[in-house]
Amino acid sequence: MAKKTSAQRTAEAALDAAKDAAKDAKKLIKSLPKKDAKKLKPLVEDAKDAAKVSKKKVADRPKKVAKSATAATARLTQATARLEAEKKASDRKFAAKKDQKKAPKKAEAKKAVAKKAVATKAVVAAPTVEPTVTITTPTSAPALAPAPAPAPAPAPTETSAAAPELSALTLVQLRARARAEGRTGYSRLTKAALLDLLAR
Q1: Rounded Cα distance, 29 and 51, in Å
Q2: What whole-number distance in Å separates Cα of residue 163 and Cα of residue 147?
Q3: Domain ranges of the chain
Q4: Alpha-carbon gap, residue 45 to 75, rounded angstroms
Q5: H or E element: which one contains 135?
Q6: pLDDT at 143
Q7: Residues 166-180: pLDDT tens digits?
């Protein structure tokens, strides 16, 4: 067996590199869009053809074989690197578009959470405000209480005087008066029953 020269070893290494580059590119083609895959397929075939060289040719012209295999590998490597970069860029654009679409939804969700928090704070704050209101109302209530108290005392004398006035009113006016006084069940009563109800 004859020893291999360094040129032959270099040629064999270039052929192996071309085979490996073709395998890697084939795997990459599966993940690329059809348009980009079509661009890459001819380069893969060139690399395969450059790697398929007979042993005789490697022994006779090792430098020429190494040069063609290296050139095919370089073209394929450049193309795959460019297409991978384009794919990454398009993936980033796609992700950015998704984020832009999601951004308004996220902002709306944040606003909704903020509104709920404000509403919760208002609900929590409301009971603390109410006791102060109830505390202030009792202080003002005694001042108002004496005013209504004298009004019922003269009412019995007014009812006897008001009875002739009430009989002069129409049924509609009597119902309006009963409504104003806060009475219930007056809508179906007759005029006499309404007069009796309002006299009490």
Answers
A1: 19
A2: 24
A3: 6-108, 157-199
A4: 12
A5: helix 62-144
A6: 46
A7: 888 899 999 999 999
